[in-house]
Amino acid sequence: MTSSRRVREMIRVDAVVIGAGFAGVYAVHKLRDEVGLQVRGIEAAETVGGVWHWNRYPGARCDVHSTSYSYSFSDELTQSWEWTEAYAPQPEIKAYLNHAADCLDVRKEFAFNTRVTSVVWEDDEQRWTVSTDRGDTYSAQFVVGAQGNLSVAKDPTEFVGLDNFQGEKYFTSSWPAEEVDFSGKRVCLVGTGSTGTQIAEVIAKTAGHLTIMQRTANFAVPGLNHTVEPEQRTWNAQNAAALRARDRLNFYGVTIGEDLAPLPSAAGMPDDERQALFDTNWPAGGDAFLQIIADLVVNEESNKHVSDYVRDRIRDRVNDPEVAELLCPTDHPILSKRIVLENGYYDIFNQDNVSLVSVKNNPIERYTERGLRLADGTAHEFDMIVMATGFDSITGPVKALGLRGRNGVALDDVWADGPVTYVGSAIPGFPNFFLIVGPTGPAAFYNNPVSIEDFVDHTASAIKSTLDSGCGVIEATEDAARRWYAIASGLFDNSLLPYANSWYRGVNVPGKKPATYILLASGVLWRAYAAAIKASGMGGFALDGVERSVPPVLKLGWAATRLFDEMLLQLAGETPPPLRELDIATYREMADGFTAAGGIAPRDLAVADTTYSGPGGDLPMRVFTPRGEAPKPVVMYLFGGGFVSGSVEAHDNLLRLMADELDVVVAAPQYRLAPENPFPAAPDDAYAALQWVAANIDSYGGDPERIVIAGESSGGNLAAVTALRARDEHGPALIGQALFEPAIDAEADTASRREYAEDWLMSAADAATCWSYYLGEDLKHAASPLASPLRASSLVGLPPAAVVTAECDILRDEGEQYAAALQQAGVPTTLVRMPGTVHGGLPFIEWLPEYRAAFTAISDLVARTGAPATEVLTEA
Question: Which of 134, 185, 529, 726 is most exposed by smallest CB count within 10 Å?
Answer without folding.
Answer: 134
